[in-house]
Specification:
Elements (H helix, E strand, L loop, with lengths): L10 E3 L2 E5 L6 E8 L2 H9 L15 E8 L1 H7 L3 H7 L4 H15 L14 E7 L8 H12 L11 H13 L3 H11 L9 E4 L2 E3 L2 H16 L3 H14 L8 H7 L16 H28 L16 H18 L10 H7 L13 H9 L15 H16 L8 H6 L1 H4 L14 E3 L2 H4 L3 H4 L1 H13 L3 E3 L2 H9 L2 E2 L2 E2 L8
Parallel strand pairs: 2-4, 3-5, 8-9
Antiparallel strand pairs: 1-2, 3-4, 6-7, 10-11
Amino acid sequence: MDSPVPAQDGNYLGDLPVVDIVTGGDLILNVTFNTSKETLKAAKKAKGPPGQPSPAALRATVKQGYRVQISVLKDNSGGYFTRLLGDTRFTEAKTVEKALQKLSSQNIKPSEADLSELPVVEITEDDEASGTANLDTVFGDLMRILHRVTITTKPLTVRYLAAIAVLADRFTCTPLVSKWLNAIKFKFPPTTLQNPNRTGPALSQPAEELLRQKILVSWLLDRPPLFQSCTRDLIMHGSRRWCILFDEQDGHQSEHTYTAAWWDLPSDIETELQHRRDYILNTISSIPSHFISLYISPISSRPAQCKLGYTSSPSCDSFQLGEAIRFLTSRNLVSLVDFSPRSYDRFHVSGPPTDYIMSDISYIIKVLKQCPTYQIDKNHNHCGLRGRMGRILEFIEARLGGGGIGLNHVKWAEDRTENSWLKGEVEEEGEKRVFKYTSSVSSDARLRYGGAFAAEKLAREVFTADEWDWTAEEHEAEAEGVSFGKWKLGEKSFPR
């Protein structure tokens, strides 16, 4: 049997150590904390911050008592403690009522009563959602926050705040904890990337866990700016949680567990972020694919892509096609399939040789911008992929910033269905949504002065399209005739 953990102030109720959260409290919370073997193993390997229990002190089961004030718990709980301690349909509420009536009949004030005379309510808590081994300390700090008492843990970490946020959500007291977090002015660390391989910078497992913890804290404790920026970061950098080989690489071979709440973000956030990244990758991959398809199409069914009108223009097209494919394959952006997630389903394969699921989207755009300016000879300028993709990639980069792709905390809390990018997938089948890129779209003044709303609206329009026409103006010009001054070539007579 586990030996009791000594109480900080030396109080015991039988074998139960009791911490005085508030002097003269009228209730004892008897909390049993169960910690999984995986969490204990991870905690013993990690070096915790000062003020937290040493690895040797961590045990699978801890029983801890907390002397608290019933009125404080009821006033600061959105429902959990109000029902547990006030609704006499619950056994706990009946126990509390009888014990307090007994003290009243004996003219004993609860603040002056012995521990053995106070009502005791039992609670059981496990580490499944919090992923934390020292939950007794975290719970004690949560009780101190509710009672406006200074917490004992210093310094605070993001992981510790995530555990407090999980418990606050469990006991329905997030509004007060949110105010406390605002008061202490905690500075969240920035997201950092590594550069492990040719796919460019990516999140390490600890860095991704930290980012996910920030998302969870900002969601549960109402931090809209942090929530929007961190959800954008996870969309841009990707997650091992969304990787096709996630179970094989991490779930089985790694000792790390992914049961904590931040590894499966609540309120449909996890699904939304993954699909937004997929939409963005599909859009970016469509840019080189669009131009390659123009070069591949039979000459008889399309105009020459080289617009110079030389006899060497057909040869220029073939040359540009070969150089474009050589560049993209050398950067692992195209193989048997391209890097977009929908291509995996189309060809029923597990992914390209280098998995871009965990690559930074900004890096992919940077690589595409590095496409050289190939020329079949000195007379052919700006015929290749680089000149045609440049402005389009800059347009995409602009859509990825300015609050366009991160989740808006207020809107997501109010109506997930209306603000989800997935809405388009459940609509009835109809005409495909085709986004047509033109110079007027890229230079629209509303994009510069419309604020976050305009950025979010256009980003959704661009990235959730079914198809993309990146040369819409060229197609329109071909259909209408080439303009020359005020007249169009092909007209039979000058306009009068």
